[in-house]
Amino acid sequence: MPVAIITGASKGLGHALAEALAERGWDLVLDARTAQVLQETAAALGKHGTRVEALPGDVTIAEHRIALVAAAARLGGVDLLVNNASALGAEPLVPLEDLALDGLRRALEVNVVAALGLIQEALPLLRASTAGTVIDISSDAAAEAYETWGGYGASKAALDHLSAVLAEEEPGLRVWAVDPGDMNTDLYAAAVPGDEDPRPAPSSVVPGFLRLLDERPASGRYAAPSLVGAR
């Protein structure tokens, strides 16, 4: 069975992707910072009959990244790495004038540095896979300028560029930076508390990710909502 590592997998998009892959028979290594919620997620996914390793921890810690890849190796390798764990830099979001530099550092550390660290750790196993794939979760804020989204957007723009360079350096892999679009998630609620405008559930864009995995287009940047629908 193929094996995927998904960070930030206890809820939101990470949980939705894990559910969809488990339904397809994938074995999973899941990460999140909240141990109880992660264990509950893993237990629920176990109903699909696949193997699920749940490792609570912080992706900015090298030992935790090593443990994630080691767990995947025990399951058979790494066919897919999804860098989904994210930090906003400020909760709620604030203008750049008020953005604490430590908050910006945290966003860069989680969204870029830790993502690269996990890619580096997993690369030998990704290269050994017949369909090695990296999905870096991007954001519309990486490409567009929105008030108060400067720190988070800058970190995601950096992740986009890292993904593009990795694709050039690793032509044997698929490397996709994927913008999931506007979603109803805890991350958005923390970013803009009090915004009650309706937003789609993360599960609504999962078919776009599955389409990427099925059709395996060239490495690049994709918007998941545009991939949802008739093929």
From TrEMBL:
Pfam families: adh_short. The keyword Heme does not apply. It comes from the Bacteria. Keywords: Oxidoreductase. Belongs to the short-chain dehydrogenases/reductases (SDR) family. PANTHER family: DEHYDROGENASE/REDUCTASE SDR FAMILY MEMBER 7B (PTHR44196), DEHYDROGENASE_REDUCTASE SDR FAMILY MEMBER 7B (PTHR44196:SF1). This is SDR family oxidoreductase. It comes from Streptomyces ureilyticus.
